[in-house]
Amino acid sequence: MITVPEAIALIHQHSAHPLESRKVKVENAIGNVLAEDLIAPISLPTFRQSAMDGYAVCMHDAAVYSVIGEMKAGDSQSFELNKGEAVRIFTGGAVPASAHAVVMQEKVTTTKEGIHLEISPQHGMNIREVGEQISAGSVPLHKGHIVTPATLGLLKSLGIEEVAVNRNPKVQIIVTGNELVAVGTPLANGKIYESNGAVLSAALQQKGIIPSAISRVEDTLEATEEAISKAMDDWDLVLISGGISVGDYDFVGRALENLGVEQVFYKVLQKPGKPIFFGKKNNTYVFALPGNPGSTLSCFYVYVNLLIDRITGREHPGLIKTLLPIREPLQNKGDRALFLKANITTNSVEVLDHQNSSMMISFSKANALVYIPAEKDVVEKNELVETLILPHGGSN
Ligand code: AMP
Ligand code: MG
Q1: Domain map of the chain by residue range?
Q2: What does the pLDDT read at residue 231?
């Protein structure tokens, strides 16, 4: 049995190389990771822009200026301003090279002689200078950056149509258990609705990965072995739920061994999710996740999520961590590390009720996991605890 930090280190060690890269249209790059540093083809802004509705002025010593023309957003004409002259200008309009500043219209009154400024303009005031955000040839985003809607906006503003991104893994989900039936089917005594398949699928989709159809297998060695062996051929990552513990009808471990999947680790000193298996065969990674729904999802977030971030080349792999004061004291009675479903509220973190790994009620309400190391027995109220922020929403 290994510790949580050892398991995390082993995942890092076995995922040194990202999957190959390919060029995609920027619109299709959301959720993907840049495979190369991005070199800005143009500066942003590309021309001097007005940041305000007002007047672009060529400064002189008096407060009165004559208005010689107008520049609205999108206009391309140019003006040569002499001292004491101004052009009416609007936000986004091109500021003439001869203008020193833009004075916002609220600070200007119109008189018979021209316009009267209520303030004395400063050089550069309300002007977005060329390259103020990004200068042509610089590297605004580095390899490893995940493309978000904001990134897409930046790429579009730079006039970029395609980017090289690392391929996302192809993932196969297998759920095991004689007790599982699909939602929509009547529940006979002893049966439960299958949920882990959908949960894993949804958690992958939050990372921009569309997994395979979920395959469900009965608790026999033959069926388990057959399903896993089919999955091994074409997939980068196989996620198996259930059947990895030590019961008489847990066949996943034996099936993986028979199929020659090399074990990287099996069993981690943690609660929930002790009997987690991580292994590899050729280019396919395999996680067997304990079937209790809370264990499956907790292991997904802590380990599978990390592996995916590594093999897609993300700059900062794994969940975001922060230290927060805990609202109530707690005891860690066993010898295992704890991942506790929790809620971050303003400036503190609260561990939720119903931590049992068979329950999803606390996970449903959680926005974080609190990590308590195995060697930590007592946590005092307000002590700082490592808090892992869970992804939320449609995409991470
Ligand atoms: P196992 O890891 O196969 O021993 O399963 C542990 C517990 O999780 C059992 O109570 C199972 O019924 C439950 N379980 C296993 N797989 C699923 C699943 N796909 N959806 C919901 N519950 C499951
Ligand atoms: Mg089972």
Answers
A1: 4-20+167-311, 27-41+142-166, 49-128, 320-389
A2: 87
The two tokens of residue 237 are: 């990552």
Question: What residues have CB less than 8 Å from 14, skipping those under 6 apart?
Answer: 264, 278, 280, 285
**Closest ligand to the CA of 249:** 2
Q: Torsion-angle region of residue 305: left (phi > 0), alpha (psi -120 to 50) or beta?
A: alpha
- Assigned CATH topology for domain 4-20+167-311: Molybdenum Cofactor Biosythetic Enzyme; Chain A (3.40.980)
Kindly state the average pLDDT of the residues 237-265: 98
The enclosing H or E element of 309 equals helix 305-311
CA 292 / ligand 2 centre spacing (Å): 9
Q: Write out the CATH class of domain 320-389.
A: mainly beta
Whether pLDDT at 244 is above 50: yes
* Per-residue pLDDT, 395: 45
Q: Give, in words, the CATH class of 49-128.
A: mainly beta
pLDDT of residue 234: 83
Residues 6+ apart with CB under 8 A from 144: 33, 34, 313, 314, 315, 316
pLDDT band at 393 (very low <50, low <70, confident <90, very high): low
> What DSSP character marks residue 214?
P
Average per-residue pLDDT for the chain: 96
φ/ψ bin of 238: left (φ > 0), alpha (ψ from -120 to 50), beta (otherwise): beta
Ligand nearest to the CA of 359: 1
Cβ–Cβ < 8 Å for 224, 255: yes
Phi, psi of 311 (to 5 degrees): -80, -10
Q: Residue 59 is which amino acid? A: M
Please check whether residue 349 is in contact with residue 340, taking contact to mean a CB–CB distance below 8 angstroms: no
Is 340:359 a contact under the CB 8 Å cutoff?
no
Say which residue the tokens 């950056």 belong to: 145
The predicted-structure confidence for 137-152, as pLDDT tens digits, reads as follows: 999 999 999 999 999 9
**pLDDT on residue 396:** 41
Mean pLDDT of 345-351: 95
Ligand 1 pocket: which of 174, 180, 193 to mutate (most atoms within 8 A of CB): 180
Q: Which ligand 1 atom sits nearest the alpha carbon of residue 275?
A: 2
250, 292, 363: residue to mutate for ligand 1 pocket, most atoms within 8 A of CB: 292
- Residue 60 has what pLDDT? 98
